[in-house]
Design goal:
The complex is a heterodimer of chains A (216) and B (126). Chain A is built from 8 helices and no strands. Chain A is mostly helical. Chain A starts with 9 loop residues before the first helix and ends with a helix. Chain B has one domain (7-112): Response regulator (Rossmann fold), CATH 3.40.50.2300. The N and C termini of chain B lie close together (11 Å). The mean pLDDT of chain B is 94. The chains are: A mainly alpha (216), B alpha/beta (126).
């Protein structure tokens, strides 16, 4: 089989690839990939062997794929997600927490008034009123649970925001300065802060009591 | 059950503190003080004289679990009854709290009867 127009044998190719790999060890950006592709293409001239032609076609395909991804990201206008949609969503969620806290406190104000009034009723009527107030207190703890659930959603949205920024930094020149997503430290990961669980995911009070008894 | 027990309730949600305080008042516990995170609670426990802690788990900068560890490591506080009241309902959380020395564990949302029962048990075993 003829050597082809590049004038390079397998050993020379391996040497060039090793040199490129050493130079671009940490290359992860599309620009770095494009540079590598350009350097590979620059070594190809004259008549190509079948293998080299295949390699050239695949390298060109990589270039086209990267260009297409960049166009698709630009068309999606993903920057709008970080600039407007996510901040707006987190603001709305914060407003929900604030509004429910305010409403809950007003309910508690009324309950405390009713509780004082309950003391003026003797017997069953007073007890019924007191029991009703207790049930309202219990129900009001929803505000804590919903607040924690919303905090989890806000944290998720912020994580998405950071990842979008990282994608934009990789594929868009305009976002080159964006911060990478924050890394979760081992301490954070092991903090056991799971928050409220959806039905079926956590254990209920009876199961907790059994578990504690089994650990005594 | 000694109704004059000094109780420290710890939660970063002011509304939750208010709810627990009101439920405790209905149970005739009127010596109740509040803290909004573990660090503040620990300082209060070290300088005060409390007979029971009722603490949330998920707080910053010091969580309820960290507070529990600090309490159990403190010579003066190590036998203090400590009830965790939290939305953390995974088995791993309950086990971690038990291993840290929790007296009892209440999952939110809870009712007044559960709170009463756990307080009674915690104070009897104190």
């Amino acid at each position: 089989m003829p050597d082809g127009g590049t004038g390079a044998g397998p050993a020379a190719w391996a040497e060039r690839l090793a040199a490129l790999r050493a130079r671009h060890r940490d290359a992860t950006t599309p620009e770095a990939v494009a540079e590598i592709v350009a350097q590979v293409l620059a070594t190809m001239h004259g008549d190509l062997t079948a293998n080299e032609a295949t390699l050239l076609a695949e390298v060109e395909q990589i270039g086209r794929t990267i260009a297409a991804v960049k166009q698709e990201i630009a068309a999606l206008q993903v920057e709008d997600i970080n600039r407007a949609f996510i901040p707006s969503a987190t603001d709305e969620l914060d407003a929900i927490v604030e509004a429910t806290a305010q409403a809950t406190n007003e309910i508690l104000d009324c309950c405390e008034t009713l509780e004082k009034a309950a003391g003026e009723f003797a017997g069953a009527r007073g007890e019924a009123l007191q029991a009703a107030v207790t049930r309202i207190y219990e129900a009001c703890s929803f505000q804590d649970i919903t607040g924690q659930r919303i905090t989890k959603v806000v944290r998720t949205l912020k994580s998405i925001e950071a990842r979008i920024a990282a994608i934009l930094a990789t594929f868009s020149d305009r976002s080159a300065g964006a911060e990478p997503p924050p890394k979760v430290t081992a301490e954070e990961a092991s903090a056991l802060l799971n928050g409220p669980q959806l039905p079926g995911n956590g254990v209920d009070q009876a199961e907790i009591d059994r578990l504690l008894a089994s650990l005594d | 059950m000694d109704k004059s027990t000094n109780i420290l309730i710890v939660d970063d949600y002011k509304t939750m503190l208010r709810i627990i305080r009101n439920l405790l008042r209905q149970l005739d516990f009127n010596n109740v003080e509040e803290a909004t995170d573990g660090a503040q609670a620990l300082a209060m426990l070290r300088s005060g004289n409390y007979g029971l802690v009722i603490s949330d788990w998920n707080m910053q900068p010091m969580t309820g679990l960290q507070l529990l560890h600090e309490v159990r490591a403190d010579a003066k506080l190590r036998h203090l009854p400590f009830i965790m009241v939290t939305a953390e309902s995974k088995t791993e959380n309950v086990i971690a709290a038990k291993q840290a020395g929790v007296s009892n564990y209440i999952v939110k949302p809870f009712n007044a009867e559960t709170l009463k029962e756990k307080i009674e048990k915690a104070l009897v075993h104190a």
